[in-house]
Design brief:
A hairpin with a 2-residue loop joins strand 6 and strand 7. The protein folds into two domains: 33 residues; 180 residues, YbaK/aminoacyl-tRNA synthetase-associated domain (YbaK protein, Alpha-Beta Complex), CATH 3.90.960.10. It is α/β, with parallel strands linked by helices. The protein is globular. It starts with a helix and ends with a strand. It comes from Ensete ventricosum.
C-alpha cells in the first residue's frame, strides 16, 4: 500500500472513531433526558437507594402531570394528596455573592459559597435571617458584609446539583452542598413534606425527622 493509501486508511479509521464517540454521547444524552442514569437505573431508583442507605424508610415518590406547575398550588396539593399547601416545598440554590475570595466551593459547611435552602412554596424567603444565621455560625468573626445570599443562576444550580429547574432536590446532588431547612417545615402536622424528586414531574414525600437525620441540615427560621 502506497503512502496515499495508508493516509486514506488512517482517515477512515479516525472517522469511524469519531462516529463511535458521537453515538456514545447521543446515547448518554438520551439517558439523561429520559431521567435515567448508568445501566438503565432510573432517578427514582438511584435516590431511593441513597435514602435507604441513610436510614430513611418513610418516603414515597409520585409522578405528576406535565402541566403540574401551570396549575394553582391548591390543585398541586390535591394531586399529591398533601394535607395543606404548606406541605409543598422546594429546594433552591443560593450563592453568597460577597464571599471572601478564598471561599469558592462548599468544603466549609459553616462558610460555604453555596447553600441549598428547603422552603415552603407558600412562604417567602428571608435572606436577611440566613445572613444573620451564618454570621453567628462563624462566631461573628466574618463581617456581615461578606454574606449576601442570592438565588444562583439556573445553569449554576444545574451544574452543582445535577437537577434542572423544578426538579432540584437535596438528595443525590452532584456536589455536597450544605442544606438549610426552614424551621416552619419542622412544625408541620403531620410531620412530612413534599419536595422535588430529581425530575420535573417526579416528587418526593419524606418524613421530616428522617430527612433531618439523613441530610443533617441547618434548621433556620428563614421565611416570612
Amino acid at each position: 500500500m502506497g503512502a496515499l493509501g495508508e493516509l486514506e486508511a488512517l482517515q477512515t479509521c479516525l472517522l469511524q472513531r469519531i462516529a463511535a464517540v458521537e453515538l456514545s454521547l447521543q446515547t448518554q444524552s438520551f439517558r439523561v433526558s429520559s431521567g435515567c442514569v448508568a445501566d438503565g437505573e432510573t432517578t427514582e431508583t438511584r435516590l431511593s437507594a441513597i435514602l435507604r442507605a441513610r436510614g430513611v424508610d418513610d418516603f414515597a415518590f409520585k409522578r405528576v402531570p406535565a402541566d403540574y406547575y401551570d396549575r394553582p398550588i391548591e390543585v398541586r396539593r390535591d394531586i399529591l394528596g398533601a394535607p395543606s399547601v404548606e406541605h409543598l416545598c422546594k429546594s433552591i440554590v443560593l450563592v453568597n455573592t460577597q464571599a471572601l475570595a478564598s471561599i469558592t466551593d462548599c468544603s466549609d459547611r459553616n462558610n460555604s459559597k453555596y447553600y441549598v435552602v428547603v422552603i415552603q412554596y407558600a412562604a417567602r424567603l428571608n435572606a436577611e435571617n440566613i445572613k444573620n444565621f451564618l454570621y453567628t455560625l462563624n462566631n461573628s468573626k466574618i463581617s456581615k458584609k461578606k454574606f449576601n445570599m442570592r438565588l444562583a443562576p439556573e445553569e449554576e444550580s444545574l451544574k452543582l446539583t445535577g437537577f434542572v429547574h423544578n426538579a432540584v432536590t437535596c438528595i443525590g446532588m452532584e456536589t455536597d452542598i450544605p442544606v438549610i431547612l426552614d424551621e416552619a417545615i419542622t412544625k408541620l402536622k403531620p410531620d412530612f413534606f413534599w419536595l422535588g424528586g430529581g425530575e420535573v414531574d417526579l416528587k418526593l414525600r419524606i418524613r421530616t425527622s428522617q430527612f433531618i437525620s439523613a441530610v443533617n441540615p441547618f434548621v433556620v427560621n428563614c421565611s416570612s
